[in-house]
Specification:
This protein has 2 domains: 1-87; 130-229, no CATH class. The protein is α+β, with helices and mostly antiparallel strands and 230 residues long. Strands 1-3-4-7-8-2 form a 6-stranded antiparallel beta sheet, with no helix packed on it. The chain has a 3-stranded mixed beta sheet with strand order 5-9-6, with no helix packed on it. It is elongated and about 135 Å long. The termini are far apart. It has helices at residues 2-94, 173-181, 183-187; strands at 131-134, 142-144, 158-161, 164-167, 191-193, 204-208, 210-215, 218-223, 225-229.
């Protein structure tokens, strides 16, 4: 009888040990499960960030392609105007009549003739205050004179009056957005930006007008327009 009791007590102790071991094992798995859940959460969050960044990159790529297409169209137009000017000059040169040297008649010197030269000071006529409107420089610090319009339109960004370069004071909202998205091509080629763009800024305003000089077929920028975001 005592032998049976001892055997039963031994089996109970073994059962208790197994039970305690399974509890410890279950408790040990809890941190691993928590770590696994955190890693899955972080992975999902990372994938969402990557997806959003990919969408932003695609949007920027589309805008860049659009700007590139517009600039290529304007560059082709400038090249066409340059070629037209070259052809015009060549035609003018071809129409010049060359006189051979032997066709001149040599005459004997005659008595000297005294000419009375009257000095007359000619006052230059004052230049009229004509304004020309431009959408963008065709080169850095260069406006093609033939690109100027005598009246503003929906693409007007700049205004030149005599030797003064100004930012047009009534820029179309679509033209303003296009200029901000293409700062290096439209704004910084003729303007000096004096502040940084903040998230709440939506337009560019002139702080101080610039200066230009007429050179051949161009208006060359001597002093850039000072502008700021607001």
């Amino acid at each position: 009888m005592l032998f049976i009791q001892e055997k039963l007590l031994g089996e109970d102790s073994v059962t208790n040990q197994l039970f305690d071991f399974s509890i410890l094992k279950s408790v040990g798995l809890v941190p691993s499960i928590i770590v696994l859940i955190i890693m899955v959460y972080l992975l999902i969050k990372f994938l969402r960030i990557v997806f959003k960044q990919k969408q932003k990159l695609e949007k920027l790529k589309c805008e860049l392609e659009k700007v590139k297409s517009e600039n290529q169209r304007e560059l082709n137009l400038v090249n066409k105007k340059i070629n037209d000017l070259i052809n015009k000059n060549q035609n003018q040169n071809s129409n010049v009549v060359k006189i051979p040297p032997h066709s001149f008649v040599k005459e004997e010197p005659s008595e000297p003739i005294t000419l009375e030269i009257k000095k007359e000071v000619i006052q230059p006529e004052p230049e009229q205050n004509v304004k020309y409107y431009f959408s963008t420089p065709y080169l850095d610090n260069k406006f093609l004179i033939t690109d100027g319009k005598t009246a503003p339109n929906e693409k007007t960004i700049y205004c030149i009056s005599n030797d003064t370069l100004m930012l047009y004071d009534n820029i179309n909202s679509e033209a303003m957005n296009s200029a901000i998205n293409s700062m290096d091509l439209v704004i910084k080629t003729a303007c000096q930006v004096i502040n940084s763009k903040e998230p709440n800024h939506s337009e560019i305003r002139m702080v101080q007008a610039g200066k230009v000089i007429k050179e051949a077929e161009d208006y060359t920028v001597l002093e850039k327009v000072k502008v700021k975001f607001q």
